[in-house]
Fold this protein.
Amino acid sequence: MEQPNMSYIHSMSGGDKVFEQKLIDIIKCEFPEEKAVFYSNLELEDYQKAADNVHKLKHKILILGLEKSYHTAVAFEEKLREGDVNLKAEFEAILITITNYLKTL
C-alpha cells in the first residue's frame, strides 16, 4: 500500500513552514472526528451520510499524497451512494494508514 507523505503539502506551501504546520494541525484535528462520524453512519447503515463522510475524507487523502487511495475513496463514495459497501475493507485500510501516519507528525 502507498504511504502518506508531505509532497503535496510542500508544493502548496512554497516552503512556508508555518502554513504547512497549520494545515497539518487542521488535518490532525479534523481527520479523527470525520473518521468517527463515518464509522457511525456506516454502522447505522446510513450509506448516503457515509458517502458524504468519504467525500470529506478523500480530500485529506489526496493532500497526504495518496493518489491511488484517493481513487479508491472516489469509487467507494460512488458505491456507498448505491448502497454497496464492497470497498469497505480497502477504505478502512486507508484510514488506518493515515491514522498511523498522523501519529508520527
